Amino acid sequence: MTVVIFDLDGTLIDSAPDIHAASNRVLLEEGFAPLTMAQVRSFIGKGVPHLVGQLLQASGEDPAGPRLAPMIARFAEGYETAVGLTVPYPGVVAALAALRAQGMPLGVCTNKPLAPAKAVLQHLGLLASFDAVLGGDSLPQRKPDPAPLFATLAALGGGPVVYVGDSEIDAQTAAAAGMPFALYTEGYRKTPVADLPHDVAFSDFAELPGIVARLAASAGARQA
Ligand SMILES: O=C(O)COP(=O)(O)O
Ligand SMILES: [Mg+2]
């Protein structure tokens, strides 16, 4: 049975409004001016330490300076409750149900820390759809290192796999892991689709069950 692993932010859920609000709360507390949604969205994908470093840099501060650690801690404080503005992308709920109805084990491999990742999935009623969830703090390595993807696959029992993600990081991670990659084009990617390695690109989750079936069939044909 094919296993499907998903990235979270920008792939299953549009969480940028909550991450923007959480970022501006911390910036305000630290005496900095708020940033725009577009700025904060462009910082999402490499986990919280990177995001907070980018918040500092955009505020004219050293992204690796002494303010980084306390600001990461402050950001983490409010992250689990920052769920109210987040929605699944259109068609996600139906696509997950269709894949589960076929008996496919589903997992999430995100650079978001595990606690807020589970909190937002729970808030949206999606946590029970997944047999494994790995966060950016679950292992010493985070994406684009392939280790978290391999660990998620192992937690799902292994087997043929399709990885679904929205960003440069996901494309790099899939390539490093040698896994078939479906690129969701409506997330937080900054690079043109043509410039990112991917097996298939899609903009509508209604296409995903068919894409998974096709990628699984061609992977099977490659192995045979
Ligand atoms: O929290 C982040 O920076 C990114 O999370 P993602 O890996 O689910 O896109
Ligand atoms: Mg993402």
Give an overview of the whole structure.
The protein has 224 residues and is of the alpha/beta class. Helix 3 (48-58) crosses helix 4 (68-79). Strand 6 (161-165), helix 8 (168-177) and strand 7 form a beta-alpha-beta unit. Helix content is 44%, strand content 12%. The chain is globular. The protein folds into two domains: 3-14 and 86-223, Rossmann fold, CATH 3.40.50.1000; 16-79, Orthogonal Bundle (DNA polymerase, domain 1), CATH 1.10.150. The strands form two sheets. A six-stranded parallel β-sheet has the order 5-4-1-6-7-8, sandwiched between helices. It has a two-stranded antiparallel sheet with strand order 2-3. The structure holds 2-phosphoglycolic acid (PGA) and magnesium ion. 2-phosphoglycolic acid binds at residues 7-10, 44-47, 51, 110-112, 167.
Topology:
Layout: E1 3-6, E2 13-14, H1 16-29, H2 37-42, H3 48-58, H4 68-79, E3 87-88, H5 92-101, E4 106-109, H6 114-123, E5 132-134, H7 147-155, E6 161-165, H8 168-177, E7 181-184, E8 200-202, H9 208-223
Parallel strand pairs: 1-4, 1-6, 4-5, 6-7, 7-8
Antiparallel strand pairs: 2-3
The protein binds 2-phosphoglycolic acid and magnesium ion.
Keywords: Carbohydrate metabolism, Hydrolase, Magnesium, Metal-binding
Family: Belongs to the HAD-like hydrolase superfamily. CbbY/CbbZ/Gph/YieH family.
Organism: Rhodobacter ferrooxidans
Short description:
Keywords: Carbohydrate metabolism, Hydrolase, Magnesium, Metal-binding. 44% of the residues lie in helices and 12% in strands. The chain is of the alpha/beta class and 224 residues long.
